[in-house]
Design goal:
This is DUF1707 domain-containing protein. Keywords: Membrane, Transmembrane, Transmembrane helix. It comes from Corynebacterium pseudodiphtheriticum. InterPro entries: DUF1707_SHOCT-like. This protein is an all-alpha fold and 219 residues long. The relative contact order is 0.09. It has seven helices and no strands. Helix 1 packs antiparallel against helix 2. Among the domains are: 71 residues, no CATH class; 58 residues. The chain starts with 15 loop residues before the first helix and ends with a helix.
């Protein structure tokens, strides 16, 4: 069903749930062919930055605000850029490199000691010892590369809906925090300007009072 925004509530502040619902409505518009991918991304960014209901009115000025999918089940849509950002946020290349380096050191030293003891043994024993040491490193290294560093095709590491939802809410909270910081800085600047103006007015008033007092004295 399509429900337009109530224009009488244009000055109402938005909640995270309102922004989430608006993004889902944009997803429906994309699925229906009303929006192109780049338009969808731009409007999602506008929704994330929206602070008042009137901000959303501008986003949905030419498309319906669809709240629910067919059958009443809420269906969520995510842009390709949101998917990519969620995947990038899940990658931990530095952590993976650090773990691999530590793992290599932990395996290399005892392996070197074991091979030193086996140096007097047959070549077969040394070979099996080396293979065992290599396998002890390769298996966890592959796991770290796949699940921590997320190396491989995009299809292997496509974020789950839960990960995408967490990333979306994180971006909304970050945008809201940025708005609050900007508003706080603006308020501070306005307060400083008012104090400066008050000081100037006070100084002008004192000068006028002195001039008037001097005129009275000189009469």
């Amino acid at each position: 069903m399509s429900t337009p925004f109530n224009q009488s509530d244009a000055s109402m502040r938005l909640s995270d749930a309102d922004r989430d619902q608006a993004m889902n409505a944009l997803g429906h518009a994309l699925a229906e062919g009303r929006l192109q991918i780049d338009e969808f991304d731009d409007r999602c960014a506008a929704v994330a930055q929206a602070q008042y209901q009137r901000d959303l009115d501008q986003v949905f000025v030419d498309i319906p605000f669809t709240q629910q999918a067919t059958g009443g089940a809420v269906e969520k849509y995510y842009s390709e850029s949101q998917v990519q950002r969620a995947r990038e946020a899940a990658k931990k290349p530095r952590l993976g490199t650090s773990i691999l380096t530590s793992l290599a050191g932990m395996i290399a030293f005892p392996g070197f000691v074991a091979l030193a003891f086996e140096a007097g043994s047959t070549g077969t024993a040394v070979l099996f010892g080396g293979l065992a040491m290599l396998s002890a490193f390769v298996v966890p290294a592959i796991w770290i590369a796949l699940y921590v560093m997320q190396i491989g095709p995009d299809s292997w590491h496509r974020p789950s809906p839960a990960q995408l939802e967490r990333q979306r809410r994180k971006e909304i909270r970050a945008a809201e925090a940025g708005r609050r910081a900007e508003q706080k800085e603006l308020t501070r600047q306005q307060w400083a300007e008012r104090r400066h103006q008050a000081a100037e007015l006070s100084g002008d008033a004192m000068n006028m009072a002195r001039e008037q007092l001097n005129k009275w004295k000189n009469r």
